[in-house]
Amino acid sequence: MPTSKNIRTERLEKLEKIRALGWNPYPAHFEKKQLVGQTRQMEGKTVKTAGKLFSFRTHGNIAFADLKDETGKIQLFFQKKVLGEENYQHLNLLDIGDYLGVEGAVTKTIAGEISIVPTSYQLLSKALLPLPNQWYGLKDVEARYRQRYLDLLFNPEVRERFNVRTKIIRALRSYLDDLGFWEVETPVLQPLYGGANAKPFVTHLNALGQKMYLRIADELYLKRLIIGGYERVYEIAKDFRNEGVDRTHNPEFTMIEWYEAYADYSRVMDVTEGLFKHLAKTINGNTRMKIDDKEIDLSGQWPRIPMSEIMKDKLKLNVEKTTTKELADYCGQQNIEMVGGETKGQLIYLIFEHKIPETLIKPTWVIDYPVDVSPLSKDHRSKSGWVERFEGYIGGREICDGWSELTDPQIQRQRFTADLKAARKDQEEAQQVDEDFITAMEYGMPPTGGIGIGIDRLTMFFTNNWAIKEVILFPTLRREEKLDLTV
Predict the structure, then answer these.
(1) Which helix (H) or strand (E) covers residue 1, if one does?
(2) How many Cβ atoms from other residues are within 10 Å of residue 56's Cβ?
(3) N or C: which end of the chain has fewer CB within 10 A?
(4) Which CATH architecture has domain 154-303+362-470?
(5) CB atoms inside a 10 Å sphere around CB 444
(6) How many CB atoms within 10 Å of residue 345?
(7) What's the CA gap between 47 and 31, in Å, rounded?
(8) What is the pTM of this model?
(9) Cα distances (angstroms) measured from residue 392 to each of 30, 259, 273, 395, 396
(10) What's the CA gap between 39 and 76, in Å, rounded?
(11) If we measure between CA atoms, which residue out of 164, 121, 112 comes closest to residue 23?
(12) What is the location of CATH 3.30.930.10 in the chain?
């Protein structure tokens, strides 16, 4: 069986013959007048289109090929009597994978196949490597991620998944723009990381001779804009966290965060609930969606249940009255891993994370979180030790995280300091004491509500696909020194 190396050698020989004929195998332009999908509706008319060859077969004085672009496929019906002897013979210089431009009439063959009968053709790009076997396509998962370009060529459902991602981003912008939000851009390269509990990527800025970080969140910069007089802002941002790579996490990912002055977490939940219904209607045409094998309807008002109440209901655990030791003992009994030294609030959240989300199938807001795990959230207005924070759950999975923003600079400093001392496996994940941000707060920050939602997570939800690498065009992978081209 020929290898890609041998096929490449043969194609390079063809390339030399093409150049010897005076053809440019890589021209800069072709006047494509119709999309391939349009040509199928133009029987009896002359068209000029282009695409990639996916099959090629000759039968004496005639030859057939399949031409594809992003809109569809059409058969090419080459005839020696139409092209002339020389041009017909030069078809043997073409290969599957080449890009070709053609002009000719659209007709229906005796077999009933809509086809273009080219009166002329032009090579637009010579492919030097063979495509994977068309029948089997590209099935190896690792190869699909590394060679996404081939994955997109052979697996139309993959392209559709990324089209959904694009529709989600468009709909997000439209929804927030209509509510009077301003889209902004904040720094990716930051002198101090913050806005989330995550380990950063560290780099060095030679021009300033200082350490810099790739942002882990854009929260603190967006809040600076609220302080600066913007009342509604959002950003669709690339964030980077130097942590594990697994089925649901990628070191580079996309978030949308928005902040609204004079709003609290109830208002943010209202806006977010409306957003999800808007997205569902945009993507699916209605408010119903499928998660795993469950049919879920996003319509109606989603219940808002305090964390303490949902734990009491589902675990029979009264976390407001239970002591820290009792919570730690519970974790031990349930084989919930601890690092040691956790506060009561950290233990409550730890138990919640391990026991509750999978039970929340219908759209649900879990509200009012322990202050110990929410350093950027405003104290609850009626419950000491808790903050006005929420997370949204659908189908047993978290979809977003938001809160009434802390606006008191003195408490914010205390929270940053406490978070640096909190028990965790990796202390680099702690919130840093951002003096510049605290200074900004001291100039006055209005009541504010905010939220962060992962675009990758949204795409997983609306395509019912639960591997993050399937919704990121080029996911982070271990570097390969040499690509195996064996067919």
Answers:
(1) none
(2) 19
(3) N
(4) 2-Layer Sandwich (3.30)
(5) 9
(6) 21
(7) 11
(8) 0.91
(9) 50, 17, 9, 10, 10
(10) 11
(11) 121
(12) 154-303+362-470
Which one, of 400, 387, 390, lies nearest residue 454 by Cα? Answer: 400
Q: Provide φ and ψ at 440, rounded to 5°.
A: -60, -45
CB half-sphere exposure, 473, CA atoms < 13 A: 10
> What is the location of CATH 2.40.50.140 in the chain?
4-131
pLDDT value of residue 1: 57
- Predicted confidence (pLDDT) at residue 238 exceeds the cutoff of 60: yes
Q: Which amino acid is at 64?
A: F
CATH class for domain 4-131?
Answer: mainly beta
Q: How many CB atoms sit inside 10 A of residue 59's CB? A: 7
Reported as type and span, the H/E element at residue 153 is helix 148-154
Region 413-430: mean pLDDT is 83
- Average pLDDT for residues 116-127, to the nearest whole number? 98
Identify whether the C-beta of residue 128 lies closer than 8 Å to the C-beta of residue 11: yes
Residue appearing with tokens 């207005």: 381
- Integer Cα distance of 436 and 415 in angstroms: 15
What is the spatial distance between Cα 124 and Cα 18, in angstroms, rounded to a whole number?
12
Supply 97's token pair.
Answer: 């994978």
User: Can you tell me the distance from the alpha carbon of 428 to that of 341, in angstroms, rounded to the nearest whole number?
Assistant: 17
Q: Which residues have CB under 8 Å from 187's CB, separation 6+?
A: 215, 221
When the pLDDT of each residue in the chain is averaged and rounded to a whole number, the result is 94
User: Count of alpha carbons within 13 Å of 238, Cβ hemisphere only?
Assistant: 7
pLDDT at 212 over 90: yes
Residue given tokens 């927030």 in the structure block = 176
Answer yes or no: is pLDDT of 136 > 60.
no
Cβ proximity of 460 and 466 under 8 Å: yes
Record the tokens describing residue 420, joined without a space.
């640096």
* Distance (Å, whole) CA 416 – CA 434: 8
CA 248 – CA 425 distance, rounded (Å): 20
Return the SS3 of 82. helix
| Six token digits for residue 440 | 């900004």
Cβ contacts of 480 within 8 Å, gap of 6 or more: 146
